[in-house]
Design a protein that fits this description.
The protein is of the alpha/beta class. It is about 45% helix and about 10% strand. It contains five helices and five strands, in the order βαβαβαβαβα. The longest helix is centred in the C-terminal third of the chain and has 15 residues, at about 110-120. The N and C termini lie close together (about 5 Å). Pfam families: Response_reg (PF00072). Keywords: Phosphoprotein. This is Response regulator.
Length: about 130
């Protein structure tokens, strides 16, 4: 699952992911509220949530805390993917339960490499992200 308010970022991430594993299913949400609603309605939970920090309605920080507070979702790995590299954002994300914090790459090739790494780390045995 990719949670990001930027439609272009969601589209590019989807393309990078599909280039690595065409059969992988990507669920998208534009903010934390939409993500939590999608998780409540899901018949199969994602094997990884990639979460932006800065979003309207419910930002990534609030979303991460909500994910970690819910027993049914607590086990899902969460990777923060943000434009921020501020020390306090990184520290707070890990304190709130993030499994990984990455800075958004500036070019598509780097995004493809990032998607490859995420699939290697979290998607080896799954078809749902």
């Amino acid at each position: 699952m990719l949670v990001d308010d930027d439609a272009t970022d969601r589209e590019l991430f989807g393309e990078a992911l599909q280039g690595n594993r065409p059969a992988c299913t990507l669920t998208e949400a534009g903010n934390g509220v939409a993500a939590l609603d999608a998780l409540r309605a899901a018949t199969q939970l994602p094997h990884l949530i990639v979460l932006d920090l800065n979003m309207p309605v419910m930002d990534g920080r609030e979303t991460l805390r909500a994910l970690r507070a819910e027993p049914a979702w607590k086990h899902i790995p969460v990777c923060i993917l943000s434009t921020s590299s501020a020390h306090f954002d990184v520290r707070n994300a890990y304190d709130d339960g993030a499994n990984l914090f990455l800075v958004k790459p500036l070019d598509f090739r780097s995004l493809q490499e990032l998607a490859t790494c995420l699939l290697a780390l979290f998607g080896k045995y799954s078809g749902t992200v």
